[in-house]
Amino acid sequence: MSRKHDAALVALTAARMPNLFPGIVPVGFQPSPGSGQPFKPYAVFYSQPGTDRQTRLTGPAHEQNPRWTIHCVGSTADQAEWVNEQVKGALVVNGFGVVPTIAGENPGRFWYSNPQPVARDDDSTPPLFFVVAECGFRSELI
Questions:
Q1: How far apart are CA 84 and CA 73, in angstroms?
Q2: What SS3 state is found at 134?
Q3: Cβ–Cβ < 8 Å for 75, 39
Q4: DSSP code of 64?
Q5: Hey, which of 1, 19, 125, 141 would disulfide with 66, CB 3.0 to 4.6 Å?
Q6: Superfamily (CATH) of domain 3-141
Q7: Per-domain residue ranges for the chain?
Q8: Cα torsion at 115, 84, 69, 50 (round to 10°)?
Q9: Could you give the C-alpha distances from 96 to 8, 32, 90, 111, 139, in angstroms and in order?
Q10: What is the pLDDT of residues 18-53, one digit of tens each?
């Protein structure tokens, strides 16, 4: 995984909702509801290198498997689920994963998963709600 994979993900998601996605890693402080500052729902992406593998024993083909864990955060459970829908809608259109454009690679379609139900974060006051999602794709170097 590299920064160009991160850039492809940001380009796809930011195009759909430019004010919703602060970036790949936590960026700055998001004020909590009740703090007197405006709160907007947001998504935070945590990149993971995934597992690379050699796809051919006799040749240079190399497959990368970049993936991300996403936290979709809102002040209500419905708001957190809405953020999740926006992210998924940017990466999966009409049931098919979007194919990112990455120079020097032949990427496959994005996959998207929600391994956990919506959860409540009682460590913040008032509580926040979040949905954990995972996404990624396979990409063979050209």
A1: 8
A2: strand
A3: yes
A4: E
A5: 1
A6: Phage tail protein-like (3.30.2000.10)
A7: 3-141
A8: 80
A9: 17, 35, 11, 9, 16
A10: 666 554 444 344 555 555 666 778 888 888 876 766
Cα distance between residue 59 and residue 128, in whole Å: 50
For 28, the token pair is 């700055």
User: What is the per-residue pLDDT across 88-118, written as a single tens digit (0 to 9) for each?
Assistant: 999 999 999 999 999 989 999 999 999 999 9
What six digits make up the tokens of 31? Answer: 């004020």
Pairing of strands 139-141, 62-64: antiparallel
Paired tokens of 121: 């974060």
CA-closest candidate to residue 64, choices 106, 26, 124, 93:
106
DSSP code at position 54: E
Nearest by Cα to 66 from 22, 107, 121: 107
